[in-house]
Amino acid sequence: LELYRKRQELEESLAIQNQLNDHLKTTVNKLNAAKSQVEDAYQQIQSDLDLAREFQQTILPNLEDPHFLKIAVRYYPFHGHVSGDIYDMSMTREGDFNNFIGDAMGHGVAAAFMTMITQMVLDNIPPHLPTNEILSQLNTLLNSRETGLHMTGVFLRVTSEGHLSI
User: Fold this and answer.
1) What is the mean pLDDT of residues 136-148?
2) Spatial separation of the C-alpha atoms in residues 3 and 149, rounded to whole Å
3) Which residues does residue 104 pair with via DSSP β-bridges, in sequence order?
4) Is 98:127 a contact under the CB 8 Å cutoff?
5) Which has fewest Cβ within 10 Å: 67, 77, 140, 154?
6) CA 123 and chain centroid, separation
């Protein structure tokens, strides 16, 4: 009788162990599936960030040096993908050099979108306007978008005679 009871306890113990093993296998399978989903989502985010970086790079201006000024540009996003920093360079019809340097509030994709909006707005403001008028129009147009984001920047103009207005 004692042997029979021990055998029954052992069988119950084995049954519980089998249930625990089955549960463990199921849990491991679910964790592996979740890990795979996270890895896929991460790859998609990386791909989207790479695309955003490429797009942001294409809207940055290319400009040959004005004959009266040497300029150089080096643009490296802080996190390697997108940035909330922006610059814009243009020449006026009078031959003056305009430059805007700005920094969007925050980091990452939201700040990068703000820089892209800023770049598009700047492209639609006549570059020959006085610097304060350019900033005023930029401010008005950016505020009209109600993004909740902010841009801090400086606009400067250098004339071919060497006069600087900021």
Assistant:
1) 86
2) 77
3) 151
4) yes
5) 67
6) 21
Given a cut of 80, is residue 80 above it in pLDDT? no
**86 φ, ψ to 5°?**
-145, 150
| Cβ atoms of residues 49 and 113 within 8 Å | no
CB 112, CB 84: distance < 8 Å: yes
Instruction: Give the integer Cα–Cα distance in Å for 162 and 52.
Output: 37
Instruction: Please name every residue paired with 85 in a beta bridge, in sequence order, or none if there are none.
Output: 103
In order of 27, 43, 66, 163, the CA distances from 127 in angstroms are 63, 41, 15, 16
Lowest mean pLDDT among 20-24, 27-31, 138-142: 138-142
Question: In angstroms, what CA-CA distances link 2 with 5, 7, 11, 12, 25?
Answer: 5, 9, 14, 15, 34
Please give the Cα distance from 127 to 131 (Å, whole number): 9
pTM (predicted TM-score): 0.74
Give one DSSP letter per residue of the chain, joined into a string: -HHHHHHHHHHHHHHHHHHHHHHHHHHHHHHHHHHHHHHHHHHHHHHHHHHHHHHHHHHS---PPPTT---------TTSS--SEEEEEEE-TTS-EEEEEEEESSSHHHHHHHHHHHHHHHHTS-TTS-HHHHHHHHHHHHHHT--S--EEEEEEEE-TTS-EE-
